[in-house]
Amino acid sequence: MSLLEVEDLEVYYETEDGPAQAVDGVSFELEEGENLGIVGESGCGKTTLAKSIIGILPDAGYVNGGEIRFKGDDLTDMTGAQRRRLKWEEISMVAQSAMNSLDPVYTIREQIVEAIETHRPGTGRTESTEIVTEMFELVGLDPDRADDYPHQFSGGMRQRAMIAMALALEPSLILADEPTTALDVIMQDQILKRMGKIQDEVNSSMLVITHDVSVVAETCDRVLVMYAGKVAEEGPVEEIFGQPYHPYTIGLKRAFPNIRKPTQDLLSIAGYPPELVDPPTGCRFAERCPMATDRCREEEPEAHQMNGLRSYCHYAEDIDTELRPYADNPETWSQTAAARKAETGNVGGD
Amino acid sequence: MANEVLLEVENLKKHFKVNQGWIASLMQSVSGDGPDYVHAVDGVSFELRKGETLGLAGESGCGKTTTGMSLVKLHDPTAGDIVYNDKKLSEANDAEIAEFRQNAQMIFQDPFESLNPRMTVYDTVAEPLRIHDIRNETARVQRALEFAELLPAEQYFDQYPHELSGGQRQRVAIARALVLDPDFIVADEPVSMLDVSLRAGVLSLLDRMTDEFGLSVVYISHDLSLLRHMCDRLAIMYMGKIVEKGPTDQIIENPQHPYTQALINAVPVPDPDVGRERVELRGEVGDVVEIPSGCRFKSRCPDYIGDVCDQVVPPLEQKTDAGVDQDIACHLYESAEGYDPYAELASMRDGDAAATDSGDDASAPADD
């Protein structure tokens, strides 16, 4: 049994125009001690996915269908109280902006101790102080600074304090939502390294949610590429970034400059993701895809098992044999329907 | 033409007073202490050549943004000068300053905040023309928007920023910067707020801007992959000073300063097969109020070699074993210009021994 099994999950948001299908039929599994990266552009549903797992969807959001099984129990069936017990103790989250996640009027120590005592009543002061010290050392903060208030910490230190808090109860699953996006490279590098080390020690699994392909390439075992609420492609990191079988992954990978490859032309994926209130039939990426055919616009793609990964593209097999150089060429991408639309001038609308 | 200098920055400093409130100044007048200063930019010199793209890189708080803002005169320097058209800006008259402002434009990081929400795209782009009293407004606005790939331009005229996406907004900001036909542009993290798929488009637009207009551009970013992609030359900043500068490929492939090496090694690579050597830097960026003596990087430096690092400020200069054109501020390398930090260290010791009565004054050693 996997630690986390998400099956056919649908998470919708109530809007004035009807429900927006933020997560639409997503399935994946996460093994114990494994790191899974979830990548995609803004609005692809990756943060919604994390929020539905830990159970902090905003009021307008609801799980419309599917199951989230954690250690075999379906989280979507649980009551609020049952889920609260799991929070921090079993599933914790490192949110993107540590600035807003820490309470400014309590010291860092008070906040961590509160989390410990809520979940483990009867924990003595000495014991929780020990946990705080241990966690601070683990994330590379000076334990003497635990009695400081969040404003006395720099951005990087706050982010590390958040990680210390997320680890305090040794959860089996950590959801890291853009854990290093607000930081600069050196701090990012330190934090990623610490998180790797910590994981080895407590053997927890991690879901790393980010738009930064290189962060995932360095920290994760497997990757799930999301587009407009659906899975585009999923598989081991080496395969997904080495030989992807979905045009979106190919485009996304080439949209980032690589410090080791200066001469590579960047590729631009014209257009925007579709409306999620009334998503298009067929493949959701069709409008921005250089390989799209009528079949893509009409028929929703099934999973194709390719070389250890699954790709939701009708033409995954052709990418294997002949279409890869075509999809890997930036020139090609100026021929998509979305690019032509931008050329002829369709203002603002979407 | 490529080596013609457009702008020369000479020992630029920008310090900000901390504790500016009236209670603080009252306390200071009672205690007799001077105010404290944040040494945001503390003596940087470089030149910007015609048609080149120069990248300023470094961690948050290293002074790269303050340098960029000083370049377009959004800050007046505390000391040092900028030479433009053979004229020092500190000595320029009003007309010359106005001309400079026309030729120096800036693109900011956040297109959600840098555009006035109550102005239409047309007014936003036309505003600089009105300020500088330039005619032919409509045609120029249209051309700028077309260049920024907002097509057809007329359709955007009456739109407000909230009707546009992030990428479109940043294009409006670019059109606004270009409408005056400037000589150079400072772009401060121009794509960091944009979504991945939009970045490449804006970057290629910025690339075209340098190719087609022959503009010089200063890119400010902490993203070295991006700077490598965009820039001809790089300057790496640490705590208000440039620690290394030179041609981009040389700096990235053969960094010499321990800080540059650490910075480059910290950049993740979107390729799981490529391993990288990771040097972990200890600690965080130091205190820019109480500047430490000697090299500012000394407390985090993995190659610290003792007293000379501790006492003597390393000048940014040519070194014998590094490539031509690459300047490094580090005592690990032998000066190609005949400078001997150990002689300075010795003379500082002699000076200390001789002048014990004025010993306290050694707190600010040899900054200039």
Automatic annotation (TrEMBL), chain A:
Its main location: membrane. GO terms for molecular function: ATP binding; ATP hydrolysis activity. The keyword Zinc does not apply. It is found in: Cell membrane. The keyword Membrane applies. One of its GO terms (biological process) is peptide transport. It is a peripheral membrane protein. PROSITE patterns: ABC_TRANSPORTER_1 (PS00211), ABC_TRANSPORTER_2 (PS50893). Keywords: ATP-binding, Cell inner membrane, Cell membrane, Membrane, Nucleotide-binding, Translocase, Transport. Residues 4-253 form the ABC transporter domain. One of its GO terms (cellular component) is plasma membrane. InterPro entries: AAA+_ATPase, ABC_Ni/Peptide_Import, ABC_transporter-like_ATP-bd, ABC_transporter-like_CS, Oligopep_ABC_C, P-loop_NTPase. NCBIfam families: oligo_HPY. This is Oligopeptide/dipeptide ABC transporter ATP-binding protein. It comes from Halogeometricum pallidum JCM 14848.
Automatic annotation (TrEMBL), chain B:
Transmembrane segments: none annotated. GO terms for molecular function: ATP binding; ATP hydrolysis activity. GO terms for biological process: peptide transport; transmembrane transport. InterPro entries: AAA+_ATPase, ABC_transp_ATP-bind, ABC_transporter-like_ATP-bd, ABC_transporter-like_CS, Oligopep_ABC_C, P-loop_NTPase. Residues 7-264 form the ABC transporter domain. SMART domains: AAA. Keywords: ATP-binding, Nucleotide-binding, Transport. It holds the Pfam family oligo_HPY. Belongs to the ABC transporter superfamily. This is Oligopeptide/dipeptide ABC transporter ATP-binding protein. It comes from Halogeometricum pallidum JCM 14848.
